[in-house]
Amino acid sequence: MYRHKAVYPGSFDPITNGHVFIAERAAALFDEVEVSVLINPDKKGAFAIDERVDMAREALKHLSNVTVNSFSGLLVDFLRQRKSSIVIRGLRALSDFEYEFQMALMNRQLAPEIETLFIVTDAKYSFLSSHTIKDVFQLGGEVRNLVPPYVYRRLVERFHSSAKAGAGLVKS
């Protein structure tokens, strides 16, 4: 159907180097990749939707065939709107596969024309998640090499008051 364009959805709260790796791999496979930040009114993220979109755009600006936007509602409806039939999902571990497999089957039930493509991350990112990044950073751990530089600056700005003095912070 629309094989030249893929959609890579997620919360990206915030985007990590693991997400960037998956986006780079997808960009090498498809003419167009749309990284789509999910708007979930039931979840309060650490960063607002517009902040997540901004961070993802900055992190992925080196990929000329990647755009970043946000969406709400059913993913299959969003894909139809975007004239795409390919969902990109990153896998870190077997535990990710079980959840992602269930979601892929549900999406296929809702829209048989939709295909989910799983891209396995690099081993160096296999432990990485947005949730872990926020937790480790707020407890004073070093995450500078796990997120794009702009995202790291945004973490410092957002959590500076709750971070331990000097731990994990950018020196001015």
Q: Give me the number of helical elements.
A: 6
Q: Unreliable stretches, pLDDT < 50, 5 or more residues? A: 162-172
**Beta-strand percent range:** 15-25%
Supply the helix-strand structural class: alpha/beta
Q: What is the strand tally? A: 5
State the separation between the terminal residues, measured CA to CA.
Answer: 51 Å
Radius of gyration: 16 Å
Strand order in the sheet with the most strands: 3-2-1-4-5
Look at the structure and give the mean pLDDT.
Answer: 90
How would you briefly describe this protein structure?
With 172 residues, the protein is of the alpha/beta class.
Task: Map the helices and strands.
Blueprint: E1 5-10, H1 17-29, E2 32-38, H2 49-60, E3 66-71, H3 75-81, E4 86-91, H4 94-110, E5 115-120, H5 130-138, H6 149-159
Parallel strand pairs: 1-2, 1-4, 2-3, 4-5
Q: Can you put this structure into words, describing what you see?
A:
By secondary structure, the protein is of the alpha/beta class. The chain is built from six helices and five strands; from the N terminus they run βαβαβαβαβαα. Strands 3-2-1-4-5 form a five-stranded parallel β-sheet, sandwiched between helices. β1, α1 and β2 form a beta-alpha-beta unit. α2 runs antiparallel to α6. It is globular, with a radius of gyration of 16 Å. The C terminus is likely disordered.
